[in-house]
Specification:
Elements: H1 2-27, H2 35-57, H3 73-92, H4 100-124, H5 154-169, H6 173-202, H7 204-212
Helix pairs in contact: 1-2, 2-4, 4-5, 5-6, 6-7
Length: 227
């Protein structure tokens, strides 16, 4: 059983490594769709690093799902839609995909979101989990330092801007809007659900933290205790 799991980790890591290498080759190839290479590079690194940082910061929660490759059917459809829009628009109007300055802005936004998410994982340590926790563990504590002093949910902020940044980078106007709307709705619901449990876990401490620190995502307030 352990060998099977290790083999699956090796296969997934290896495939992500190949995608990363292919992305780098495309990025420096000089072809008119080189920005798709940027996309391959950042998305493969994102999934590999989710597993790696979980393994180093909270190994107790480490599973194959920590790669987030099987995050949801909606996520898989979003990736397919992103690639489809890119190549359809590149085929019909290739000049549209060569507005380099916008792609660079998207790349910087993507890298910034990725960095913020990983810093959040390291800062939270064993208190970070890919799934909303409905039971408080004895070593689960409220983290309010570092990036958590700026936002209540910095990992979600990072992921949100990472996802939108990838579509700006690809110059995908339809998916850019779609990703922003769907991601916002997802995190709005998730934060509301998560904060109900956090208030139950930490009571007045979390209530005070909530009052002083924004969620970090536009127009998302989270769960509020009725006055």
């Amino acid at each position: 059983m352990a060998f099977t799991r290790l083999a699956q980790v090796v296969v997934r890591s290896g495939n992500l490594g190949l995608a990363f290498a292919a992305g780098l080759l495309l990025s420096f190839s000089g072809v008119s769709w080189a920005t798709f290479g940027w996309y391959l590079t950042v998305i493969s690194f994102f999934h590999w690093s989710e597993y790696f940082f979980t393994a180093t910061t909270n190994p107790r929660s480490l599973t194959l799902e920590s790669f987030l490759l099987d995050h949801s059917r909606e996520y898989e459809l979003a990736v397919v839609a992103s690639c489809t829009e890119y190549f359809l628009e590149w085929f019909i109007y290739p000049e549209m995909k060569q507005i380099t300055i916008l792609s660079v802005v998207g790349l910087l936004l993507t890298l910034g979101g990725e960095a913020l998410r990983k810093i959040s994982m390291v800062t939270a340590g064993i208190s970070f989990n890919h799934y909303v926790q409905r039971t408080k563990h004895s070593d689960h504590h409220l983290v309010t330092s570092g990036v958590y002093s700026l936002f209540r949910h910095p990992s979600y902020v990072g992921w949100f801007w990472w996802s939108v940044g990838t579509q700006i980078m690809l110059l995908n106007p339809l998916c850019m809007v779609g990703y922003a709307v769907v991601s916002w709705r997802f995190f709005n619901e998730r934060i509301y659900d998560e904060e109900r449990h956090l208030l139950n876990f930490f009571g007045e401490d979390y209530l005070n933290y909530q009052r002083l620190t924004p969620t970090g995502l536009p127009f998302i307030k989270g769960f509020r205790v009725p006055l």
